[in-house]
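Section 5.1 Outputs to date
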Amino acid sequence: MNKITRIILVLVVPITLILILNDISFNKLKGEETTVTWQEELSKYVNTSPELNGAIVGLSVRSATSGAVVFDHMGDTRLRPASNMKLLTAASALSTLGGNYQFTTEILTDGVIQGDTLVGNLVLKGKGDPTLLPSDLEMFAQKLREKGIKKIEGDVLADDSWYDEERYSKDLVWSDESTYYGAGISALTISPNKDYDAGTVIVEVEAGEEVGDKAIIDLVPNTEYIKVINKINTIPKGEKGKLSFERSHGTNTIVIKGTIPIDSLQEREWVSVWEPTGYALEVFKESLERQGISWSEKETLAHKSNKKKVLVSSSSIPISELLVPFMKLSNNGHAETLVKEMGKVYKGEGSWEKGIEVMNTTLKNLAVDVEQIVIRDGSGLSHVNLIPANEITKLLYQVQNESWFPSFLNSLPVAGVEERLVGGTLRYRLNDTNVKAKTGTLSTVSSLSGYVTSDSGHKLIFSILCNNVLSEDQAQQVEDEIVQIIAKG
């Protein structure tokens, strides 16, 4: 190479490099050849979002078609799932009990009908139905009256032996005991309305007629089983009211304190009862009284024989239908009932221990690595439950192959649909996205797992588990942003 050539190269090469670099910069401005993938955008977001400082996020995204993991951020780290645990419970119940399974409730007797008198005891036997309503008990009483029964020479009894006597899962926080989402679990229980919050009563509060009057209180159902202490005063129009509802441990006395403006709308609160079996029995007895049926309140010797015949019975809606209020409204009582029912049907014992054994076996058959998870209840209320996000997406991929998958998918909240039993807990979130997913909220925990169809038509499965968060609202905003990024895939 001669001297002149070397001089030309020294001058030309740098100029060429400058032009190339400028061209690259120009293309960046135009968005050409440097497009950031949704995975890169998601990785940056998860690692830099200030809302996640000090928190732990497990994130797993899979192809719904192949099952391949297409994004993973701490996906194998065991985290608290909150109500995403219900995904495992619902899948287990559909797989073991089946979508057509129904709970039953029976009216039994160990006696005989003689004229208008039942000589013997009347027994209300529950077999776990969480959808039993006061109107069903009224129907039972009407059916007995139609049989000509006006008097019972014996007692009216309750039988909740289908499940064990444990009312609360082992990790239930004591402060949740009186809440609707922490209600006790019994084989004999009733719900106040078709939300089916079993073992609860609805307390309705209206302002008094004049300022200074006590508020007007009603119960649904209207039963003497619950005692209400009214400490609510009516305050002037336009002022801000505040109510608190407290039920002391071991009692069915509800103390309501606070104020309510004279022009305010009715306030409603669901409060759990102390003993759901006694609650159902009392409401049934009140139905018998309305039908003009009396009893001696003394158990007859006939009851000792345990030879009972069915006088009246009813069946619940099938599990495929029960899953709608269960999953869309995130009903904890349904979850725990399903756990106990699986234990009763497959292990002969309606307990959490046996039900969870059934769940572990079933989940293993659904490709979940049960050695990597900890299940303590069916609802996700326990802070001891632990599941990796990758195991949740693995389950959601596998269940697509099951015959009951349509019922499972139909039970998930649909983002942005305001109809309560369609949108559920996602009805005001993720508008303009094609998302069906289960939410989860627990103190310091928020979660969201389900299915999304991306803008390009790809079907993806995702699980987001946020732990150690200071604000559940902020965590939900993070989840929504993550799903919106995934939807770009």
